[in-house]
Every structure is written in structure tokens, then in C-alpha cells.
Design goal:
five-stranded mixed sheet; 120 residues; globular; Transcription Regulator spoIIAA; 5 strands; 39% helix; 4 helices; alpha/beta; 28% strand
Length: 120
């Protein structure tokens, strides 16, 4: 029997200072990408900013990268900040290989991301 648990979960919360925080857990691939796409779309429905906590992402393929790029493009269009927090070394290496380490804003954890957004 297959495991009924999803490969990816996204836990949303709104920080009192304004930004949405999405905690992403599990494997971000072509099967699970729609889960994150929906959560990101909902969180980016206003201009308060978005922090993606990727510290518990165990795998990311090109479809997952596409979700993140789409989130970045929407953030650029609306002027709302987008910060990736807690990126593990393997995922960071992937971002470096494809050149996205020069595109995204990274912070070591959610608190550092929130602090950077508060400072403007």
C-alpha cells in the first residue's frame, strides 16, 4: 500500500509585521509543485511580501525551480519582496549551478528574513 501522506506540505502563516511565511517541507518536484504554486499564489495576492522557508525541503527538481522563478517574477512585477530562508547546502548548490544564487534574496532563517524586511 502506498503512503497516503503528501510528499510536500506547505504551512502558511502571517507574521504580525506583515509578510506571509510559507514553510515548505518535503520533496518539491513535478508531482508536488502544484501544492506550492497554489500557496504562493494565495500569499502573493497582496503586496506584504513573502518568505519561503525552504529549510525542510529535501529535494527540488526543475519543476520546483520553475515555481520559485514564477514567484520571483510576480514579486518583481508587484514590487513585493520575496526572500528564501533556510536553504540547505544541497539546494544552495543547485541554485549556484543554475545561476539563481544571483537572482534570489537568501537569508539563513525566517527570523533573519523577517528582520531584513523590517529594515527595508
Amino acid at each position: 500500500m502506498t503512503d497516503p501522506d503528501p510528499l510536500l506540505t506547505v504551512t502558511p502563516r502571517r507574521d504580525p509585521s506583515g509578510p506571509h511565511v510559507l514553510t515548505v517541507t518535503g520533496e518539491l518536484d513535478h508531482h508536488s509543485a502544484p501544492v506550492l504554486t497554489g500557496a504562493v499564489s494565495e500569499a502573493q495576492s497582496d503586496d506584504r511580501g513573502l518568505i519561503l522557508d525552504l529549510s525542510a525541503v529535501t529535494y527540488c527538481d526543475s519543476t520546483g525551480i520553475t515555481v520559485l522563478i514564477n514567484a520571483y517574477q510576480r514579486a518583481q512585477t508587484t514590487g513585493a519582496p520575496l526572500v528564501l530562508a533556510g536553504v540547505n547546502p544541497d539546494l544552495n548548490r543547485l541554485f549556484q549551478v543554475v545561476g539563481l544564487d544571483q537572482v534570489f534574496t537568501f537569508r539563513p532563517d525566517v527570523e533573519a528574513a523577517l528582520s531584513s524586511l523590517r529594515q527595508g
